[in-house]
């Protein structure tokens, strides 16, 4: 019963990991394709729910392991660190703040950037988002592609190493971009917007002047007079903003008594494309490992070892190892040839009528003999 | 008690792990099982529900009788089917010795097979030949042999001078395989220092067996009897034994070691290819014709057998 529950829970988590990968993919696609803010809001909420689920999963596993005094083993050997990194930092620094900002509702835009501090915090920890891609490793842990535990371990270790390297490389790159002020799509957009603002004459109030400004910069959305709390000019109506903009889709820059709202969606789409690239690399890397390297490892390492092990263990198992001609020079296949050409013939030669006496029937396979009474 | 023994044997025979085996192989497996597990089975089988008050030897004897009866029934039925549908004896007409009427000949040959089944040693030796027939080894390999012009075909056509069709050669080999255990009807002489598992007999003894069989089976040509009996002689001792005898030996021995239910792991080659691979390295010990074994190995490899 306990095993059944555990199996059902594992299946549920596997499905959740699949879904979270799809959610991650669509979150980026939503930015690139300029999906409505509401849809992106749903995706963000789904991301929050998944982060919460995986955080709970991590905590349960972690405390269970601690209870068994296997905390270190779980965290370092059984990849608890993946569970941790793919859950808690994301909940605290990515989906949590974003859902909080979303919860402030559509009035945010019109509030003149009242949640700016929160937005800045979200941007500062955006680096953490690449950690989401570590979740594919959680999925990989559940795939029993090859029978051999040795192959499982090798593939798992290799995939962990490869995916972690890509993710941490992206993380380190993001860190240096941030520290060294290397231009990012958002940074470039903001710099251009700042240069534009430098040229703006804040004393001019004529509508014609704003019209010219709006025709010069397609990403300028709205200008407000902050002293009078008055919208001086807007490109779209409020309903449009509510439907198409979320809190991260724009920035507010102030000059004098004017607040300038700029569209950041193009820059976000460019950033999302970069995220999608990392995601695609991670996924393709795993697919390649699973479907190209996995079978190769099985054919060239674990399969011949398995056949030889059975040949040594079982008196009746006398199958030769298949030796692919292009790998015949591998040490393992040289060993396999010796097994085929020396050991197996010797095994047959040493066979006596007594040693042949074994049976496919076992006492256990007889089942209950009470029915025969 | 006999009924109880039959019931227990039926239970063993119905075990899924024996499903793929031929009847005589099942019998071997069950005999081994009973011998290996005698100590653990006895407390249950000597209980009031089974065979109370009986010693293990008595129980074993009862079970053996039931097992032999059940296996014989299956083997006889299989042989009847084989004689009725699979084989025909037209190939006999290619040999000079005049033979009797075909129905009479088949009936007498079938009776001789019953004699083999009734004889403990011959019955045990029939396991391989019977399985070889069930596995259609002669049929499958002869088809491939006749696709090319290799050593075996040359030996059959040019050396043994079998001027008959491929189908008739198949039937000759099948009959030869079935008659191979006939040597066990006689007090079998062994080659000195000869490997027990190889089961080879000296050439002189084989000649005596042929003479005796000619009296017992006068309706069969000497060539067929030679093919069957010489299949027990080492090719190393006599390299002029007929090609059909050498093939009969190889097919019978292969079938003897064949495990129908064996899972072929990824990374392993097929059972038949493996067997020929080993056989060609042990050819001296088991008296196989190494060139023939090499060719059969190649055919098994090419066909994924």
Automatic annotation (TrEMBL), chain A:
Principal place of residence: membrane
Gene3D superfamilies: 1.10.287.70
Top-rank taxon: Bacteria
Membrane topology listed for this record: Multi-pass membrane protein
Residue ranges crossing the lipid bilayer per the database entry: 12-35, 41-63, 99-119, 158-182, 272-293
GO molecular function, one term: monoatomic ion channel activity
Cited InterPro entries: Ion_trans_dom
GO cellular component terms listed in the entry, alphabetical order: membrane
SUPFAM superfamilies to which the protein is assigned, alphabetical: Voltage-gated potassium channels
Subcellular location: Membrane
Boundaries of every Ion transport domain copy: 10-180
Annotated keywords: Membrane, Transmembrane, Transmembrane helix
Signal peptide extent: none
Name of this protein: Ion transport domain-containing protein
Source species: Sediminispirochaeta smaragdinae (strain DSM 11293 / JCM 15392 / SEBR 4228) (Spirochaeta smaragdinae)
Automatic annotation (TrEMBL), chain B:
Top-level lineage group: Bacteria
Protein name: Uncharacterized protein
